[in-house]
Prior knowledge:
It is a single chain. By secondary structure, the chain is an alpha+beta fold. The chain is 32% helix and 28% strand. It contains four helices and four strands; from the N terminus they run ααββααββ. Strands 2-1-4-3 form a four-stranded mixed β-sheet, with helices on one face. A hairpin with a 2-residue loop joins strand 1 (46-53) and strand 2 (56-64). Helix 1 (2-8) runs antiparallel to helix 2.
Amino acid sequence: MEAIIVLLAPFVPHIAEELWHMTGKDNSIFKTKWPAYDKSAIITDVVTMVVQVNGKLRSKIEVPFDIKEEELKVKVFADPKIKELSANKTVKNFIVVPKKLVNIVLQ
């Protein structure tokens, strides 16, 4: 709660000062340190990738952040929707935008 009040202080200084004193603090809110962020909180292990077939959104899959393209191909073609759409068709192109999307061009 204190961090939120400190973050509000530049935008609503008088209200933030009042809230700061309501929490039991004696000194001014403007003499406190700016809150630090936790670097480990912004690191993700899993990323959601969009899977398109011929440019149309067909599925979304969750994959590890550092997945290799070969492993990604296996996971994409293991998806039931993609399996059904790619049955009896040849893959003309497999385009990957890292950590965002996969586009499969079929013939």
